[in-house]
């Protein structure tokens, strides 16, 4: 049975900070951000966008009535959940009006969570042919103002409908994961910004890719030259290239050029949004497919490297399905990125430091000047989050 991604979409808040503006304000050479790190713009969510609203906003455009009746499983991968107990998936289940006899769970391992969800969904569909699963990766990446990680923040969500006979990407069975308990990036429960050992995290990422690739190529018998593109988890647009370049060293110029060209296409959305943690790898896939000019064909092999600090990594492969290009939301994606509000430094810092109310009582929330999204967090009353739909 062929199983994989039948539909997919992403959402990012409609407010961002330009990174040249940020660099100049911080007294840093803008080339460090735009060339050295490879980031141009960074999504900055208002307090009315959270893991739930972003996940629901990413999912809504791809689901029809048949999907809502057939989705049995909703998995949200996130490391910025909004409750230690109740899952964001249960809120999203309600907001999207998915049939009641579904299970809704949240899974966590840093940026790896959505891949864990995807693999769970694949196994679920294998055991329940004809049914569907909704996999979401939704996060807000925060290191803090004036930190070295500041330029690698971001926010957004991806949504993927997983089914048999998928219309975009068939996911193959061989995949290799790896776990090693390290502290390259982590966030204790009492903090709302991450702690990171930046250089070590870069090294761990590359080591995970190289080690897993060796095992994956042994188990799958695939060589680098079999792939038309590799998509990476992208905390910033330069990161995947640091992992890709060493494995291209012994490849022909033609293979190397193709993989590097497609790598650049896969980074475009990240460059303009920033790190969206769990959804990042799948944002790279959407960036690649939306930007490609009809060179990728049905049955082309694409490699995927998922990495979550702490650390868990996985490499798997997928093949494009005949007619996949007809099922992409390219125009909608580009419009979303192009029609955002460009924040001033003062607005960025004010939005970044604003906190949700934590006290008893009823707290209406409004950021209507900035937040134009369909679903948004509208109030917190007696510690319960309430969401509204903009008509
Ligand atoms: P930094 O110390 O600010 O930057 O940290 P740097 O000094 O290392 O410079 C970065 C690059 O800019 C270097 O290039 C410089 O040469 C270049 P590279 O050596 O990397 O090729 N540069 C310039 N280029 C042009 N003109 C200039 C200039 N100046 C310098 N004037 C770092 C950068 C990314 C480490 C930091 O922002 C950070 O800690 N970010 C957060 C951690 C992170 O993203 N780690 C990535 C791997 S871990 C991961 O992916 C998991 C994660 O997503 C979390 C999860 O799993 O949940 C983060």
UniProtKB/TrEMBL annotation:
Protein name: Hydroxymethylglutaryl-CoA synthase
Active site: 79, 111, 233
A biological process from GO: acetyl-CoA metabolic process
NCBIfam families according to UniProt: HMG-CoA-S_prok
PANTHER family recorded: 3-HYDROXY-3-METHYLGLUTARYL COENZYME A SYNTHASE (PTHR43323), HYDROXYMETHYLGLUTARYL-COA SYNTHASE (PTHR43323:SF2)
Family the entry assigns: Belongs to the thiolase-like superfamily. HMG-CoA synthase family.
InterPro entries in the cross-refs: HMG_CoA_synt_C_dom, HMG_CoA_synth_N, HMG_CoA_synthase_prok, Thiolase-like
Source species: Vagococcus fluvialis
Domain Hydroxymethylglutaryl-coenzyme A synthase N-terminal: 3-164
